[in-house]
C-alpha cells in the first residue's frame, strides 16, 4: 500500500515537472526576449542592394535604390550606404558608426555630390523619416534594449508560428512613439511583426516581415513592409544580392570611399 | 563655332558610350526663368541648360567628363566642361589628373579655406555651388593612412574668378573686368600649390590646409586712363573642425592669409588678414536649422583703406521636408553687419516625379550698400523646372 502511494507521489512529481517544463518558457521576461533579439547572432559583415518602393494611397509609386555595406565588431557597427536612384540623389552616400557603449552617440556623415562635401550630421534626427519612406532612421537602426521598458504580453500564433508578443515603452518621454509591440519568433529571435503607436497611443504604423533568409546560418530580413495606417501609405523594403562574411575591410568605411564609391 | 564644338563633343562622347555599357550617364536639363520685382519687370534670366556627367569607374581607375551648355535667351552663353579628369586608384593613394573642382572646408555658402577652385560670379552668388565653382587643370594626389588623408594639389595654370560683364545687373560699378584675368602666364614658377590633411573620427572631423596661390579676385590698380588689374600671390594656412555635441553639430573654419593688397584712397596697401567662421546645426521634428557667424579682419589696418577693418556676416538656414520628402521648403539668409544689409532666399522645391522637380524661389536684397545691399534693385523671383536623369 505504501509503495502504491510512493509510486503515485512519484508520478505526480513527474507530471508536475512535465507541466512546468511545458510552460517554462512563460517564465522568460520581455526584457530577456528583447535582449535575445538584440544579441541575436549576426554576421561579421553584410552587403547587398536595398530597394524601397514608396506607395501612396492613390497607388503612385516612387522607387529608391541603395547599395549598403555593414560591418560588426565587438566595439561598434559601421554602415555605409550609396544611393543609386532616383537620379537627383544618385552618388549621395551616408555613413553611420554606432557604438556598443550606450553613452556614446552614433557618428553620422552624409556626402552630397551636388556640393562635393561630406557633412557631419547629428544622430538626434533619428526620428526623421529615411528618404521619405515610412521608416525612421531609428526604425532602421539596432535599438538598444535599455532604451525601452519591456513587458511580455502573451504568446500567440502568427502565420503558424508561436510568437512572444512584447510591449516596449520608451524610457525617453520625448520619443515619437508611445509604445511598440513586437512579435518575436522564439527559435530565431527575430521580430516578425511590429506595431508602432503614436504619442496619443493610437496605432501609427505596422511592420510586417515578409521574407526571412537564412544565409550561412544567419537569419536576415530580406523583405519587409511598413504601413502607415493613419496616412494609408506603405514602404516595401527589399534586400537582394545578399552576401555575408565576405571580409569587408575597415577602409571601406572612410572618407575615401564615401566620396569615390566602391 | 561654339555650336560646332558642342556637337563634336557630344558625338565623341556618344561614340565612347556606344562601346561600353558600363559608362554611367547622369545630369540634368533645366529651364530657369527669373523676373525682377520692380516696376518694369525685366527677365534677367531666361535660361535653358543641359548638363551631362559621363563617368566610368573600375577598381583601377575612373574618368569623368561633365560638359554643360547654357543658352541665355537665344544665345549660347556657356559651353564648356565643368570637369574632365582621369583617376588612378592604388592601394593607399589615388591620383586625379585633369580639369576638376576641389571643395574644402566646413562652412556653408562662404569661401574661407575653399580656395582651390575659382568662382564664376557672373550671377553673383546665386547659382548652385556646382555652377559657381570653376574647374581647374590640376594634378591631385590623395594618400590614405587609416582614417586620415593627405591631399596634395598642383595647379599649373592659374584661372581667376569670372567676373560679371560691364553691363550686368550684378556689376553695380559697371567695371570692365574683361582684361582682369590676363596677367599671370602659365609657367612652373606661376603654379599654385595646395595641401590638406584630414581625419574623421568618432569625436570630431578635422582638416588642416595650406596654399601658395594667386588671388582669384582681381585687384584694381588704376582707374585712369584705363582700368587695370593685378592678381597677387597669397599664402594661406588654416583648418576646419566639426563635432557633434548632444543634439548639435558644431563647425568652425578659419584661415590666415598673407600677401593681400587692399585698395586705399590713393594706392594699394598690403596686409595680412584672418577669415573665420563658427557655426552650428540643429535638427528637430524634421526641421533642419543652421547658423554661422563669419568675420574677416584686416590685421595691419590703415584708415585710408576702403574696406572696413572688420566685416561681420551671419547666415541662417531653416529647411523642412513635407509630403514624404516631395516638398522641400527652405529659407537661407546672409546678413552683413556694420552697414546693415542682407540677402533673403526663400525656396520651395516640389518633386513632381522621381527626377522632375519644380523650384520656386526669390532673392530679396535688403539695404543700400554692402555686399548684398548694393543689389537692392535686383530683387528677383524665379522658377526652375529641372529634369534629372
Features:
heterodimer; A: 262 residues; alpha+beta; outer membrane lipoprotein receptor (LolB), chain A; 4 helices; B: 389 residues; mainly beta; 18-stranded antiparallel beta barrel; two-stranded antiparallel sheet
List the helices and strands and how they pair.
The complex is a heterodimer of chains A (262) and B (389).
Chain A: H1 2-23, H2 30-38, E1 45-55, E2 61-72, E3 76-85, E4 93-99, E5 107-112, E6 117-121, H3 137-140, E7 148-158, E8 161-170, E9 179-185, E10 190-197, E11 203-215, E12 218-228, E13 233-244, H4 255-260
Antiparallel strand pairs in A: 1-2, 1-13, 2-3, 3-4, 4-5, 5-6, 7-8, 8-9, 9-10, 10-11, 11-12, 12-13
Chain B: H1 2-18, E1 24-36, E2 45-57, E3 61-72, E4 75-89, E5 93-100, E6 122-125, H2 129-132, E7 136-145, E8 148-155, E9 192-200, E10 204-214, E11 219-222, E12 228-230, E13 233-245, E14 248-263, E15 268-284, E16 287-298, E17 310-322, E18 327-336, E19 341-353, E20 356-366, H3 370-373, E21 380-388
CATH class of chain A: Mainly Beta
Mean pLDDT score of chain A = 89
Strand content of chain B: over 45%
CA(first)-CA(last) distance of chain B: 28 Å
Gap between N and C termini of chain A: 82 Å
**H/E series of chain A:** HHEEEEEEHEEEEEEEH
In CATH, the topology of chain A is named outer membrane lipoprotein receptor (LolB), chain A
State the helix count of chain B. Answer: 3
Structural class determined from secondary elements of chain A: alpha+beta
- The tally of beta strands of chain A, per DSSP, is 13
Work out the helix count of chain A: 4
**Using only CA atoms, what is the Rg of chain B?**
22 Å
The biggest beta sheet of chain A reads: 13 strands, antiparallel
Global geometry of chain B: globular
CATH architecture of chain A: Clam
Amino acid at each position: 500500500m505504501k509503495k502504491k502511494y510512493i509510486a503515485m507521489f512519484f508520478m505526480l512529481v513527474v507530471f508536475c515537472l512535465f507541466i512546468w517544463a511545458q510552460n517554462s518558457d512563460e517564465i522568460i521576461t520581455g526584457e530577456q526576449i528583447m535582449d535575445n533579439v538584440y544579441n541575436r547572432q549576426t554576421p561579421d559583415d553584410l552587403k547587398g542592394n536595398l530597394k524601397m518602393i514608396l506607395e501612396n494611397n492613390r497607388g503612385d509609386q516612387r522607387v529608391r535604390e541603395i547599395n549598403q555595406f555593414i560591418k560588426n565588431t565587438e566595439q561598434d557597427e559601421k554602415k555605409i550606404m550609396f544611393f543609386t536612384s532616383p537620379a537627383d540623389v544618385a552618388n549621395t552616400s551616408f555613413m553611420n558608426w554606432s557604438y556598443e557603449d550606450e553613452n556614446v552617440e552614433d557618428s553620422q556623415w552624409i556626402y552630397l555630390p551636388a556640393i562635393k562635401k561630406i557633412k557631419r550630421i547629428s544622430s538626434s534626427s533619428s526620428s526623421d523619416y529615411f528618404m521619405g519612406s515610412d521608416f525612421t532612421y531609428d526604425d532602421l537602426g539596432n535599438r538598444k534594449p535599455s532604451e525601452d521598458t519591456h513587458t511580455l504580453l502573451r504568446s500567440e500564433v502568427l502565420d503558424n508560428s508561436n510568437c512572444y508578443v512584447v510591449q516596449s515603452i520608451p524610457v525617453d518621454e520625448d520619443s515619437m512613439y508611445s509604445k511598440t509591440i513586437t512579435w518575436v519568433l522564439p527559435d530565431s529571435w527575430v521580430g516578425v511583426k511590429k506595431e508602432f503607436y503614436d504619442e496619443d497611443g493610437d496605432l501609427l504604423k505596422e511592420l510586417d516581415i515578409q521574407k526571412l533568409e537564412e544565409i550561412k546560418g544567419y537569419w536576415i530580413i530580406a523583405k519587409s513592409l511598413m504601413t502607415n495606417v493613419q496616412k494609408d501609405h506603405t514602404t516595401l523594403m527589399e534586400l537582394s544580392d545578399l552576401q555575408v562574411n565576405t571580409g569587408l575591410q575597415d577602409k571601406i568605411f572612410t572618407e575615401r570611399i564615401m566620396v569615390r564609391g566602391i | 563655332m561654339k555650336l560646332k564644338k558642342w556637337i563634336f563633343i557630344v558625338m565623341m562622347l556618344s561614340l565612347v558610350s556606344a562601346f561600353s555599357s558600363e559608362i554611367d550617364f547622369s545630369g540634368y536639363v533645366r529651364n530657369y526663368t527669373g523676373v525682377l520685382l520692380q516696376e518694369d519687370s525685366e527677365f534677367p534670366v531666361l535660361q535653358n541648360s543641359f548638363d551631362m556627367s559621363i563617368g566610368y569607374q573600375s577598381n583601377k581607375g575612373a574618368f569623368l567628363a561633365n560638359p554643360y551648355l547654357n543658352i541665355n535667351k537665344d544665345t549660347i552663353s556657356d559651353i564648356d566642361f565643368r570637369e574632365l579628369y582621369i583617376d588612378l586608384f592604388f592601394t593607399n593613394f589615388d591620383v586625379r589628373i585633369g580639369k576638376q573642382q576641389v571643395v574644402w572646408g566646413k562652412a556653408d555658402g562662404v569661401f574661407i579655406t575653399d580656395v582651390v577652385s575659382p568662382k564664376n560670379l557672373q550671377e553673383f552668388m546665386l547659382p548652385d555651388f556646382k555652377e559657381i565653382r570653376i574647374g581647374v587643370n590640376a594634378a591631385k594626389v590623395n594618400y590614405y593612412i587609416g582614417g586620415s588623408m593627405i591631399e596634395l594639389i598642383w595647379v599649373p595654370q592659374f584661372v581667376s574668378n569670372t567676373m560679371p560683364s560691364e553691363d550686368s545687373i550684378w556689376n553695380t560699378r559697371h567695371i570692365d573686368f574683361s582684361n582682369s584675368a590676363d596677367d599671370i602666364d602659365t609657367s612652373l614658377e606661376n603654379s599654385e600649390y595646395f595641401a590638406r590633411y584630414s581625419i574623421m573620427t568618432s569625436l570630431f572631423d578635422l582638416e588642416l590646409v595650406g596654399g601658395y596661390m594667386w588671388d582669384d579676385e582681381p585687384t584694381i590698380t588704376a582707374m585712369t586712363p584705363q582700368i587695370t588689374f593685378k592678381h597677387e600671390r597669397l599664402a594661406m594656412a588654416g583648418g576646419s573642425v566639426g563635432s557633434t555635441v548632444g543634439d548639435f553639430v558644431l563647425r568652425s573654419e578659419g584661415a590666415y592669409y598673407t600677401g593681400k593688397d587692399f585698395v586705399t584712397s590713393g594706392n594699394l596697401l598690403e596686409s595680412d588678414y584672418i577669415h573665420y567662421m563658427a557655426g552650428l546645426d540643429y535638427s528637430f521634428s524634421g526641421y533642419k536649422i543652421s547658423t554661422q557667424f563669419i568675420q574677416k579682419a584686416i590685421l595691419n589696418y590703415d584708415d585710408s583703406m576702403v574696406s572696413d577693418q572688420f566685416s561681420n556676416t551671419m547666415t541662417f538656414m531653416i529647411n523642412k521636408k513635407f509630403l514624404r520628402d516631395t516638398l522641400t521648403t527652405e529659407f537661407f539668409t546672409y546678413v552683413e553687419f556694420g552697414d546693415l544689409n542682407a540677402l533673403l532666399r526663400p525656396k520651395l522645391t516640389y518633386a513632381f516625379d522621381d527626377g522632375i522637380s519644380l523650384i520656386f524661389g526669390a532673392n530679396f536684397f535688403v539695404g543700400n550698400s554692402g555686399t548684398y545691399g548694393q543689389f537692392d534693385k535686383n530683387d528677383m523671383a524665379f522658377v526652375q523646372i529641372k529634369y534629372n536623369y
